[in-house]
Amino acid sequence: EAHISRSCSASTSITEIEDRSKKVINFDHGDPTMFERFWQKMGDKSTVVISGWQLMSYFSDPKSLCWFLEPEFAKEIVKLHKLVRNAITDDRYILVGTGSMQLFQAALYALAPPDASKPIAVVAAAPYYNSYPLVTDYLKSGLYSWAGDAYTFDRDEPYIELVTSPNNPDGYMREAVVNRSGGMVIHDLAYYWPQYTPITSPADHDLMLFTVSKSTGHAGTRIGWALVKDKEVAKKMTKFIELNTIGVSKDSQLRAAKILQAISDNCQHLGNHDDGKSFFKHSHRLMTKRWEGLRDAVRQSGLFSLPEFQPRFCNYLDRVAEPHPAFAWLKCEGDIEDCESFLRGHQIITRSGKHFGADSTYVRVSMLDRDETFNLFLERLSHINS
Ligand code: PMP
């Protein structure tokens, strides 16, 4: 059909315009396809070839605490954190997981007391990442259970608090809010990278989670990592992954290692970060442009509002920068009560605020889709008015 319409121009453009206005824009998931273009340009610098006889063993490093962690990948993790200065890796155990989602579950398993009379409460300040309650409760564990918004948690008992910083969905930097004795904290730092937020200091928490899904855009590789201070916690998390999936794909770890290496190489060799080869510089520029476009579209429409962010000094970019989160936490203003259905009426699929412990005047919009789709979204949003 595309071929046919392209060859006969007059009637074609009308069809194309109609197609454009009918196309459903799905921004429900945070699929990071925006980064594909950068990696296409990188060419073979990020290509991995694995022969049939390679990587066959279950084991990567039998003597290490995390015996299924590829040493090559661990080395690249340390190198990248030192370069970006977003997390301290010294005196930490590095663990690998099938996405940070597996490591999140491993952390719950490791932190929950094994023989308590009831499951330990798991909380996060609203609005929180909607997968947390779902993943915490889907197996109805006897070890841990979801206890809702950390701001209203008032039980005098041990708890696990999830701190996502910058936060999914609203993009703000976060700190623990409960701060009571008997509390344990998991820091999900999936978005603590220069393209999303100024890097103000290296994160130095007991248990930190990262993922290639959001740092480099390789969500399909399903690789995350944890930096863990306490040896017993690191051991138990490793045990969880051993019981759950007997380790983590070596193929994926080597691919992730190669990707991180490509980023480090290109950033290190740049005196001038402005070179389009620097992944974070390049992505930061794209995110800046997208957020500017979004704020313009919201202004034009007049029906929505967005969070405002304070610029901070970014140690990586070496200048003051504004946050540009991976999601836009969009609010419908006026008398629109259900922002998700309202936008669905305009063929824009988003995720309602109610899934995040907020109300339905909010929706979460992915900022990481491909250029064509994102531009179509801006065009459509700017024309929505009362
Ligand atoms: N934590 C947060 C805050 C996320 O937004 C996501 C992905 N949307 C994840 C974890 C899961 O990441 P992964 O693909 O590494 O499992």
From TrEMBL:
<keyword id="KW-0472">Membrane</keyword>
<dbReference type="GO" id="GO:0008483">
    <property type="term" value="F:transaminase activity"/>
</dbReference>
<dbReference type="InterPro" id="IPR006948">
    <property type="entry name" value="Alliinase_C"/>
</dbReference>
<dbReference type="InterPro" id="IPR015421">
    <property type="entry name" value="PyrdxlP-dep_Trfase_major"/>
</dbReference>
<keyword id="KW-0812">Transmembrane</keyword>
<keyword id="KW-1133">Transmembrane helix</keyword>
<dbReference type="GO" id="GO:0016846">
    <property type="term" value="F:carbon-sulfur lyase activity"/>
</dbReference>
<keyword id="KW-0663">Pyridoxal phosphate</keyword>
<dbReference type="InterPro" id="IPR037029">
    <property type="entry name" value="Alliinase_N_sf"/>
</dbReference>
<protein>
    <recommendedName>
        <fullName>Alliinase C-terminal domain-containing protein</fullName>
    </recommendedName>
</protein>
<dbReference type="Pfam" id="PF04864">
    <property type="entry name" value="Alliinase_C"/>
</dbReference>
<dbReference type="InterPro" id="IPR050478">
    <property type="entry name" value="Ethylene_sulfur-biosynth"/>
</dbReference>
<feature type="domain" description="Alliinase C-terminal">
    <location>
        <begin position="25"/>
        <end position="384"/>
    </location>
</feature>
<dbReference type="GO" id="GO:0006520">
    <property type="term" value="P:amino acid metabolic process"/>
</dbReference>
<dbReference type="InterPro" id="IPR015422">
    <property type="entry name" value="PyrdxlP-dep_Trfase_small"/>
</dbReference>
<comment type="similarity">
    <text>Belongs to the alliinase family.</text>
</comment>
<dbReference type="InterPro" id="IPR015424">
    <property type="entry name" value="PyrdxlP-dep_Trfase"/>
</dbReference>
